[in-house]
Amino acid sequence: MSSTETKPSPEEEDQLFRLLRQLDTAPGASQRATASAIGISLGRLNALLRAAVDAGLITISERSGPDKRQRFAYSLTARGASEKVRLTDIFLNRKLAEYNALHAELTGTTSGMVPLKHRTNLMEQNLAPIPELYVSHESAQKLKVEAADLTSHDLSPRQICDLELLMNGGFNPLKGFLTEEDYDGVVENMRLADGSLWPMPITLDVSEDFAQSIELGQDIALRDQEGVILATMTVTDRWEPNKAREAEKVFGADDDAHPAVNYLHNQAGKIYLGGPVVGIQQPVHYDFRGRRDTPNELRAYFRKLGWRKVVAFQTRNPLHRAHQELTFRAAKEAQANLLIHPVVGMTKPGDVDHFTRVRCYEAVLDKYPASTTSMSLLNLAMRMAGPREAVWHGLIRANHGCTHFIVGRDHAGPGKNSAGDDFYGPYDAQDLFRANQSEIGCEMVDFKHMVYVQERAQYEPNDEIKDKDDVTILNISGTELRRRLSEGLEIPEWFSFPEVVTELRKTKPPRAKQGFTVFFTGFSGSGKSTIANALMVKLMEQGGRPVTLLDGDIVRKNLSSELGFSKEHRDLNIRRIGYVASEITKNGGIAICAPIAPYATTRRAVREDIEAFGAFVEVHVATSIEECERRDRKGLYKLAREGKIKEFTGISDPYDVPVSPELSVETENVDVDNCAHQVLLKLESMGLVKA
Questions:
Q1: Global confidence as pTM
Q2: Which of the residues 158, 223, 299, 316 is marked catalytic?
Q3: 3-class secondary structure for 61-107?
């Protein structure tokens, strides 16, 4: 606001709020009916309409229809819908202040109600509806038409998850992607600019080129990956964040071993945009539609059943018997009903896919009392941020109407850092949650580490077993479970339900029947292609699975012929190879890749893509650059030395030597057959092929 502008009075703000609300809820009403509904004269209505049109809050169009007296139609723009949300907060807080003043005058005491920051409902009202960012159906149809003229941003899968929870109230009190001021507060001390607790940056990251094409104050259309519009956003902020600072503050370390830090540095856009969002329609999910509920749908469900206390169980893994016992105990301790609330958005790379997990959940749901337990799916993109993630999960569950939340040991921990240590302490998440519990609005129920006591044939909390020296304690770790599944070994019934094991075995057949990828990397001329060809013949000789060779030169000719040799294009070429290999692996085949693949971050991204479906075996062909240059069968090193080939790996461009490949082979003074045999022996030791 410039120094010459005057701040609108409360009465003017109220009138504008009532006008925008009326046009949104009754867009077809006459001017006389609109003025009557707002409680102002026709003259004042016309003045308001003119001001709103000038401010870009509403549009005016010729009306077509039988009512000749009503010549014009008015509808909210995206900016008008956003302004309505802002004015609603101001209106509600003003009315609450008036109520408190009247309460004090009549009774001599305060009402005990606190201001509703961003309309956040008090958690004792956990069954009442919470605010959403969607406009009415009529306004949404108009905004879809208007959005055709807006600059569009195609959202990434993670951004779609974030946007859905912004629009349906799961991220309440947020009204859009964080502004720079809110972002700084969240990163530094888990607080929005107004002081509200919020631990996780929810930002719209974009490329530099896209950011430069946007002016502040401009509206943009937010679309899914098929181009379907989901929302509009008024861009109020644009900045380049300090990502190293964000990594240190939010995730505890600027370490690429953390999946969210790796995403931050290697996948997220360089520039952040912030501003309010106007929801047009929710993303379409074709899977498990009957299991997906918005916060208000869950609150209505709890209200209908009379559930006053609800304890939520967060999970991204299949449910086994220990989890069942844990949830039973948590519900009993809280004297609450149970909501099994698994995440089906983005979880940790390598996790069991959500289709398999939901089938596992449904297979054991009847093990719970139907009258006290329900299940709903949460389309959340996890960050694996440990303590902050636990607080975040608590706020999200409070928005969904839950009063209690189970916080686990090392809750949402990502595993080991680059030094081989855990990123977070085992109880850091519980400590941070407990410190902020009153503001979260959701009480914590401590996770109990459950183990099976063989002599008593039951699960018990490990720290409550008094006679540990006299009993047999059994437990199977996640790593051990994956090994047993991969090798086709028995999964004891005391550990898991037969129905769950059956579902897991469908997705995880024995390793010798799974698809996998062998990914050779090394300098040009190191012998990758030669060894890869020999390995392909040996695997085809064994039979049983189709084998596909994705050699660097062959892919360049058939899949990436339009690409050059810049870093960006080389990365894109490797990602294309990784995508094809992941599809081959997913469908039970064997992919053999033999590109140079000089950059560790790109190789890691390909590994994550493939390990979602099967094994990834990285083979470093460790031929020295001197030997490769001596061989120089294609004459490329000579041209690179003469400066005729720019950005040549090993000469004018770096090569990141693999730190911990599954296998490293030397080719100097070793014949090709021996090198291929080394790879085959490694595959046998990993159980991927039979000896």
A1: 0.73
A2: 316
A3: EECCCCCCCCCEEEEECHHHHHHHHHHHHHHHHHHHHHHHHHHHHHH
